[in-house]
Amino acid sequence: ENAVYGSAAFGPEQLGKFREVIPLLETRTLKVHFVTPPVDDPVLRKSKPHRVISHLLGHESPGSLHHLLNERGYLTGLSSGAALD
User: Fold this and answer.
1) Cα(33)–Cα(36) distance, rounded to whole angstroms?
2) What is this structure's pTM?
3) Which of 5, 8, 39, 85 suits 25 as a labelling partner, its CA being 20 to 30 A distant?
4) Could you give the CA distance from residue 45 to residue 39 in angstroms, rounded to a whole number?
């Protein structure tokens, strides 16, 4: 069973944005946002798709994405989770 929503998650004005920023401090951050259905959707209450993405990105065991990036020195910290906007 799939939930159906009446509108797209993002309109044309939110897509294809690129921002270039001159930093004040030496820091590197990458923020990746995934669109998932609303967290409180009754159809998805059991499957929790937002937790699957969070787990795949944040899991620290050998062979995981986190472990690989950390081993290569690309990562000093990582957090993942669902946020309500």
Assistant:
1) 9
2) 0.48
3) 85
4) 7
Is 80:53 a contact under the CB 8 Å cutoff? yes
Q: Which two tokens stand for residue 3?
A: 């939930």
Q: In this structure, what are the phi and psi dihedrals at residue 41, rounded to the nearest 5 degrees?
A: -65, 120
- Nearest CA-CA partner of 1 in 54, 59, 46: 46
**Under a CB-based contact definition with an 8 Å cutoff, are residues 11 and 56 in contact?**
no
pLDDT in tens, 47-66: 777 788 788 878 888 988 88
Please compute, for residue 66, the number of CA atoms within 13 A of its CA located in the half-sphere on the CB side.
15
Listed in sequence order, the residues at least 6 apart from 36 whose beta carbon sits closer than 8 Å to its beta carbon are 49, 50, 53, 82
Both structure tokens of 48: 């929790």
